[in-house]
Amino acid sequence: MEASTETGSLLQALSHAEALLARQPALAEEQAREILRVFPRSAEGLTLCGRALAAQGRLEEAIAMLRRAAAVAPDSAEAWRELGNQLFLVGDHAGADQAYAQQIRCSVGDPRLIEAAVALCDNDLPVAERLLKTHLKAKPTDVAAIRMLAELAGRLGRYRDARMLLGRALELAPSFAPARFNLATILYRENRTAEALAELDRLMADDPDNPAYRNLAGAALTRIGELDDAIVQFEHVLRQRPGQARIWMSYGHALKTVGRQADSVAAYRRCIALAPGFGEAWWSLANLKTVRLAWSDLQAMEAALARDGLSVEDRFHLHFALGKANEDLGEAEAAFDHYAEGNRLRRSVLPYDPAETSARVDCAIHLFTPSFFARRQGQGCVAGDPIFVLGMPRAGSTLVEQILASHSDIEGTQELPDIQHLARRLAGDGEGSYPEILADLPPDRLRALGEEYLERTRIQRKTDRPHFIDKMPNNWAHVGLIHLILPDAKVVDVRRHPLACCVSNFRQHFARGQAFSYDLADLGRYYADYARLMAHFDDVLPGRIHRIFYEALVADIEGEVRRLLDHLGLAFDPACLRFHETVRPVRTASSEQVRRPISRAGIDQWKLFEDRLGPLREALGPALRDYPFAG
Q1: Cβ(395)–Cβ(496) below 8 Å
Q2: H or E element: which one contains 261?
Q3: Residue 100 has pLDDT above 90, yes or no
Q4: What is the pTM assigned to this prediction?
Q5: Is 283 helix (H, G, I), strand (E, B) or coil?
Q6: Which residues pair with 549 in a beta bridge?
Q7: Residue of 21, 187, 433, 504 with fewest CB within 10 Å of its CB?
Q8: Residue where one domain finishes, among candidates 181, 207, 233
């Protein structure tokens, strides 16, 4: 009877605390801690306390509390689910996957599924796959098993398989919210942003305050340029969870993109106050090129760097930010040392083989001959909407984009991943490799690929202007593909002095991609490969590519803009010369710089580090010697 009374008291106290959670999370925490004083090993009390801490934004404490709950009751699906949710929100996606796998393990009763879930938790994917496929042969409509197999496919990067499996799970169980959120996440990773948002809309209709749903919605809306809506999503989360440092950073990114610099600085500062060792937040602040970091910032970053247990990711972000801070303070040697260490750490976790890039360029030069293109003349999709602005990162392409986006007939978008997506898919088709496989594509396939590109990019277009810009710099490697599938599209190559351009890359940490940029020798070789492939296309497709040299643009902006617009077949628009007055989202590291009039600032910045550039000079070779403007 006494045990029964205690159980009743516990349930009553838990119910009361649960009722407080949405309105008064601090009181819910007090109630939960009172429960834990009486019932210290109550998994329900520990989980509720973790949720209350999370609702107050105290994420580290929440995660620690939820880990305690899972340790006390390792079979509690609720504890693992809540732990997964909080790990997802702080960006620990691998940890979240493990927690969700444990949740699945606790939620199923079939011995084979339990065994498969244990294998998933241990990341023993071959064993998990074998068990799940065997189980689904016997029970093809088991939704839990389908979701587990989808999670496995997602971990392996087989997103199409994961998407199909999750779609099947939702056919069988439309109200299965975890599977729908998994599907939205996979769609986001596949860059199927509109579909991801549709799934998130369904989830938020039933659970409008779920921070994981709104955070992913904010990221997805940012990707397609719906910045005002993205900001609304982030603000909604932060009203509920003001202590979520990572979301303050995402909010700061969105504010920066729309030009609200003071607000973005405040958001980054709030993030840093919550998590002083969060290297990416420090770098985000430093990466606002028009913001100068103070001596106190430098001291705070050095203190953060001295902390034990700091991740490699936090370390290299802090080194890049310290490089910028020292450079702002005129300490060139210290700045370069920090840039070098940040690059070394980043390179250590990011595989890149410069020989592969050189081999792809060799292959393209061998394949794309005048006769190759002559035999395919008149093929492809004849739309002339796209303007591809490409070249090396940090060469001035954002400036050229802003100039063009000021023209009344041209819409600016962003660095679109769609050409690269088509190239990767072609590389996986059949037995051929890319770009060799392009030789085997029939005319209808080339036209279909051009039409697919236009359809994929349509979501980025917000106006009825007849032309739009795709500013992905790495598209220089796909000029052959672009010409085959979109022969009437325009291609603009923006080029900057090799030393200035490569040093600017070395000083820049990129959020994704650009693996070549974290070593001076790799940088030089990559620039040289880019320059020789562009020279080849100048020979085999004369006049196809319009080249703008950054130094010439700075020296004579009107003359260069007029020549560029002539190449595009467009009338001169004086607004192009007032590009800094154009209000539009800009999503690159140069976002603040292009909101100012053009100047020579930065052209000779590389000379601060001139005596440290030996490996770069050697790797550049003829690309440095033959550049038309002196360094």
Answers
A1: yes
A2: helix 261-274
A3: no
A4: 0.79
A5: helix
A6: 495
A7: 433
A8: 207
